[in-house]
Amino acid sequence: MPKSDTASAAPAITAQPEPVKNPNEEVCELDTPIVRGTTSIDTITVRKPMAGELRGVALVELMNLEVNALRKVLPRITSPALTDIEVGRMDPADLVDLGSKVASFLLKKSAKAEAFLTA
After folding, report:
1. Which of 3, 67, 80 is nearest to 36 (CA)?
2. Which of 14, 34, 39, 90 is most buried per CB count within 10 Å?
3. pTM of the full predicted structure?
4. Would you tell me how many other CB atoms lie within 10 Å of the CB of residue 95?
5. How confident is the model at residue 23 (pLDDT cuts 50, 70, 90)?
6. Region Disordered: start and end of each range (predicted)?
7. Helices (H), 36-108
8. Is 21 buried (19+), middle (13-18) or exposed (0-12) by CB count in 10 A?
9. How far apart are the first and last CA of the chain?
10. Which residues of 63-94 are buried (b: 16+ CB within 10 A; e: fewer)?
11. 5-19, 43-57, 72-86: which has the minimum mean pLDDT?
């Protein structure tokens, strides 16, 4: 009777699937953490704003990274939710990073692809 070599076979290794990135969210690592009481916030998740969250702000102001426009919109679309005062005290480099993520959400997919190809 032939020997079965199933006992000597190595177990199959299955690759773990890559986590799927949500296209409606971007994570920003802050150069200068925001201190809130005893908590230090070093990453902020920005989600794509819906039209109602853009009320009271001209879209061109967001595209131009106007500070006052960002101070209105960022508290509505960040996690953890930033306050207007925290945005006002933010490191300018971090504010530009967050603002550029917001501005990129305002572009159509075709415009993003075109900008990526020409860059």
Report:
1. 80
2. 90
3. 0.77
4. 20
5. confident
6. 1-26
7. 59-63, 67-77, 84-88, 92-105
8. exposed
9. 67
10. eeeeeebbbbbbbbbbeeebeeebbeebeeeb
11. 5-19
